[in-house]
Here is the input.
Amino acid sequence: MGHLFGREMYYLTWVLQFTILLLGNMGFLLLGGRALKEINSEFSDSPLRLQIYIVITGAAYFVFAFLVPTVSSMRRWLGISVVLTFTYIVILLVIVVRDGRSNKDRNYDIYGSNFSKVMNGFGAISAIIVCNTGGILPELQSTLRKPAVKNMRKALYLQYTVGLFFYYGVSIVGYWAYGSAVSAYLPEDLNGPKWANVTINAISFVQSIISQHMFIAPIHETLDTKFLRLDKSIHSRENLRNLLYLRVALFSGNTLVTAAFPFMGDIVNLLGSFSLIPLTFLFPSMIYMKVKGKSTRMGSKLWHWGIIVVFSLLTVATTISAVRLIVLNVKQYSLFADP
Here is the structure.
């Protein structure tokens, strides 16, 4: 973007990308904290505050990031992640289907004014876009061996066919089982045996550790390149000390912000609206028009200009929706509230 549109666009793209990574990490912190709280709820009628579990999650992320400092060290963990994912899906679907068959009182009505329904719909679009960024993981991994482009396309095809089948399958079955009142964190609604609920939430917690490390890796890489001695081993005393400081600073800040805002998920949706939509849909068409706009066919021009106009409007609409939801939650919650 900087090469085609100038230095200002370069910095704008850089800020948007790194904001996505930071807020995404905060979303994972909230996910891990909620998973731990659900485990505690299985053994106690008065679980500890969510903030305590967020701090525990932040500490776990720090330890993992310190012991596994680079993406190249993640190889064995990716295999573990695959096993955990399918274990989670199988156990979850069995319980959800059983709950759905026994739940005769589920309601699919959507309440609220027409305006709130429209705004919530745009908010849902932001959430969907955020959740679908998981495709970046196989895309990044596939570029490590040649031919990079061909492997990347295979990885994306797999992600957005088989991957989405399971991803949306769980969402659809959950909505069928519990109706429109279903929780944003599906394991909260499960009525299965204690061992199953504990297992599902434990998997969610461990998986959040592995997944967040993949997404936050570019920030780790940037900080490590800036502050570590590249002429020395990463395991040298000086580099280990600096690595410790960097990881502590990053996860302390992220954990503090996440604990302060119990509606962090809405802020992540805001990220999806004003950052991910432009990066995913607008910028590629802008680049295409800048490079080939004068020589391309009229049909192609109309297609890309249509994308630019439609997704510019969608960016505005989803951003308004996300800001509205945050304002409503600010009125409802105080800082460090326990929702």
The CA atoms of residues 90 and 170 lie 10 Å apart. The longest helix spans residues 7-43. The chain has eleven helices and no strands. The chain has a mean pLDDT of 82.
